[in-house]
């Protein structure tokens, strides 16, 4: 098995289709099919089940792909260790984080990292926390910033902070007119107000759905969005309410005079912010320092928020 074969086979599994993988790899479908036949002939067994769409692996294929991932990880670790041994400060760091987290942290960590490692290419992948966590697990990115409960034993998680969930309400809602701001409330007290919701897969939406089930309520959702910034603006524009992490309030200070904030009671699942990476991934110095800079950036950002709100 050579590197090209391993990477091509992993691409086929990821895309679920030989033609899609060929397009992604910019090779012809016949040449990719021929490579599969060559590998299967060398192994003396089939890797993929015939005529399945999306493509499915045989048991032997599952073992092959598992070994391929391990081989590529070993090679990546060796490459990174050699970089460290030679005291080189160049390389590639693949960092994943949700867009909202990027808005919060980018100005705090990026200038310092670039100053310290001007020859390291930082590749930023923006996605939801669940997707970022899986990409770290699969080796598609090196370091992930996620708001989630740790799901995988294969990953190391660094707890950055616990985040408080609040109800963000337009001040002209009946709810906000009747209850003083910063009064701890249950979601049932706002159940008759229109809701702006984040799309499923976001940790805030997971918490909201949990509360809805626990209290057996059926709030009217006006719209779903992937952006907390859009959700806050929609809540004000439509005289509605939404669930939001408190630390994201200061990204839109112009909205705070129009909003009322309420701590939420009865939340069973904590909203926690982690930085994670694979346990078996060798981290060169620039990746270890990237984690340190991200941790420091969060503390600086949090301190800045506290000063601005006081």
Layout of secondary structure:
Blueprint: H1 3-15, H2 18-25, H3 29-43, H4 59-85, E1 91-97, H5 99-116, E2 120-126, H6 129-137, E3 143-147, E4 155-163, E5 165-170, H7 174-178, E6 195-198, H8 203-215, E7 221-225, H9 228-237, E8 241-245, E9 259-263, E10 271-278, H10 285-309
Parallel strand pairs: 1-2, 1-3, 6-7
Antiparallel strand pairs: 3-10, 4-10, 5-8, 5-9
Index terms:
3 domains; 20% strand; 10 helices; 3-stranded antiparallel beta sheet; 10 strands; 310 residues; Arc Repressor Mutant, subunit A; D-Maltodextrin-Binding Protein, domain 2; alpha/beta; 5-stranded mixed beta sheet; 46% helix
Question: Explain this structure to me?
Answer:
The chain is an alpha/beta fold and 310 residues long. The chain folds into three domains: 3-81, Winged helix-like DNA-binding domain superfamily/Winged helix DNA-binding domain (Arc Repressor Mutant, subunit A), CATH 1.10.10.10; 89-161 and 271-309, 3-Layer(aba) Sandwich (D-Maltodextrin-Binding Protein, domain 2); 163-263, D-Maltodextrin-Binding Protein, domain 2, CATH 3.40.190. Helices cover 46% and strands 20% of the residues. The protein is built from ten helices and ten strands. Strands 2-1-3-10-4 form a five-stranded mixed sheet, with helices on both faces. The protein has a three-stranded antiparallel sheet with strand order 8-5-9. Strands 6-7 form a two-stranded parallel sheet. Helix 8 links the parallel strand 6 and strand 7 (221-225). Helix 1 (3-15) crosses helix 4. The radius of gyration is 24 Å and the shape is globular. The chain starts with a helix and ends with a helix. The mean pLDDT is 88.
């Amino acid at each position: 098995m050579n590197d090209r074969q391993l990477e091509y086979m992993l691409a086929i599994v990821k895309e679920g289709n030989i033609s899609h993988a060929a397009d992604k790899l910019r090779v012809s479908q016949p040449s990719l099919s021929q490579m599969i036949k060559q590998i299967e002939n060398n192994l003396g067994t089939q890797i993929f089940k015939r005529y399945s769409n999306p493509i499915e692996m045989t048991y032997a294929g599952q073992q092959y792909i598992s070994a391929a991932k391990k081989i590529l990880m070993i090679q990546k670790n060796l490459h990174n260790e050699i970089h460290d041994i030679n005291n080189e400060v160049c390389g590639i760091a693949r960092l994943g984080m949700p867009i909202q987290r990027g808005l919060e942290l980018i100005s705090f960590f990026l200038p310092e990292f670039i100053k310290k490692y001007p020859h390291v290419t930082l590749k930023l992948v923006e996605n939801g926390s669940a997707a970022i966590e899986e990409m770290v697990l699969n080796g598609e990115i090196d370091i992930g910033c996620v708001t989630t409960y740790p799901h995988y034993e294969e990953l190391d998680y660094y707890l950055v902070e616990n985040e408080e969930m609040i109800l963000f309400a337009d001040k002209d809602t009946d709810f906000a007119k009747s209850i003083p701001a910063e009064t701890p409330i249950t979601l049932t007290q706002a159940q008759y107000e229109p809701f702006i919701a984040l799309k499923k897969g976001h940790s805030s939406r997971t918490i909201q759905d949990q509360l809805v089930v626990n209290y057996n309520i059926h709030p009217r959702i006006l719209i779903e969005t992937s952006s907390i910034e859009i959700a806050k603006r929609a809540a004000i524009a439509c005289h509605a309410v939404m669930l939001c992490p408190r630390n994201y309030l200061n990204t839109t200070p112009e909205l705070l005079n129009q909003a009322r904030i309420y701590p939420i009671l009865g939340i069973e699942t904590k909203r926690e912010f982690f930085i994670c990476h694979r346990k078996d991934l060798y981290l060169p110095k620039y990746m270890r320092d990237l984690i340190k800079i991200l941790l420091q950036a969060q503390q600086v950002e949090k301190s800045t928020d506290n000063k601005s709100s006081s």
